[in-house]
Design brief:
The structure is a single chain. About 0% of the residues lie in helices and about 50% in strands. The chain has no helices and 13 strands.
């Protein structure tokens, strides 16, 4: 059974930073692409970033490019999302999912497993 557990969310002032973690278990960690999604209040969930476990290729949605960095630690079976220069519009519940696929510029996790989410709140 695939298990994903997110952590690292919190309350931060605009301009601040947070690092989210996604600890994975129950599957061959280096086989799946893993993605981060977020859902803001009243909005649909959107894919934010993903990392290919095969070659380490990364993708970012335009709104976070240059501010967020996705990385992985194979020894810890953990994927991270370093979020810098946070903005109030980054507020939402952040989820990790695996496996994910990149269709054009859209990250899809329809057939993957999901974590329970971690809340990120950025205040002005």
């Amino acid at each position: 059974e695939v298990q994903l557990v997110e952590s690292g969310g919190g309350l931060v002032q605009a301009g601040g930073s947070l690092r989210l973690s996604c600890a994975a278990a129950g599957f061959t960690f280096d086989s799946y692409a893993i993605g981060w999604f977020r859902q803001a209040p009243g909005k649909e969930r959107e894919g934010v970033s993903c990392i290919s476990r095969g070659d380490g290729t990364t993708f970012y949605v335009d709104s976070v490019k240059g501010r967020f960095t996705i990385s992985s630690d194979d020894t810890k079976h953990t994927v991270y999302l370093q979020m810098n220069s946070l903005k109030p519009e980054d507020t939402g519940v952040y989820y990790c999912a695996a496996p994910v696929s990149l269709i054009g510029t859209t990250i899809r996790g329809d057939f993957g497993s999901w974590g329970q989410g971690t809340q990120v709140t950025v205040f002005p």
